[in-house]
């Protein structure tokens, strides 16, 4: 293995660790509280994004289901072919787009507004269409990607994950979700074994 390769690998840890630390400087308590309130009250939650953002939005949908907030990832392609019918007035759609103007997402934004679906946007561009039209907007800060070309979706996905994990932690507190509830819906794997052993 090249020396440069090892240095790049170790440097990735430093870049992403710095990003998470810096993100606290951009944490807006008012906007975050709005987002948590919307998610806590919604009967249904959709998540959407393209590319790496979309993959992390799939992760968020699963996290929400794990605390019994009914959610599903709606792909941008399917969203404009009927899938937004999942969402009804008073529900929430979470958009993730680092630039905040991903063209595939803008028609979905229009649909949500027409249906009375609340919008939470996560973006680095606070002047973008997704940010300006959101009911709550959470800033995604990225120092740089981990590759030498600053081009691959690496640190940016970690930053998005961190925001979603913070939402999950807050929602557990806000809704009073209990480990016993999770034990019921998660009997599988080592986590399920640990939770259900305690429940007994």
UniProtKB/TrEMBL annotation:
It comes from Anaerosacchariphilus hominis. InterPro entries: SIS_dom, SIS_dom_sf. It comes from the Bacteria. PROSITE patterns: SIS. GO terms for molecular function: carbohydrate derivative binding. One of its GO terms (biological process) is carbohydrate derivative metabolic process. Residues 35-177 form the SIS domain. This is SIS domain-containing protein.
């Amino acid at each position: 293995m090249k020396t440069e390769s090892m240095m790049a690998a170790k440097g990735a840890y430093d870049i992403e660790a710095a990003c998470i630390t810096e993100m606290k400087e951009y944490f807006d308590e008012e906007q975050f509280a709005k987002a948590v309130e919307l998610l806590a009250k919604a009967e249904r939650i959709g998540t959407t994004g393209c590319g790496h953002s979309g993959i992390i939005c799939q992760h968020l949908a699963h996290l929400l289901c794990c605390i019994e907030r009914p959610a599903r990832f709606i792909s941008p392609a399917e969203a404009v072919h009927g899938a937004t019918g999942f969402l009804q007035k008073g529900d929430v759609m979470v958009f993730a787009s680092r630039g905040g103007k991903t063209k595939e997402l803008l028609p979905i934004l229009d649909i949500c507004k027409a249906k009375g679906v609340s919008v939470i946007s996560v973006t680095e561009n606070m002047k973008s269409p997704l940010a300006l039209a959101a009911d709550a907007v959470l800033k995604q800060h990225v120092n740089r990607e981990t590759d030498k070309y600053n081009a691959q979706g690496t640190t940016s996905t970690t930053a998005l994950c961190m925001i979603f994990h913070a939402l999950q932690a807050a929602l557990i507190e806000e809704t009073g979700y209990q480990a016993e509830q999770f034990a019921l819906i998660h009997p599988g794997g080592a986590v399920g074994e640990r939770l259900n052993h305690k429940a007994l």
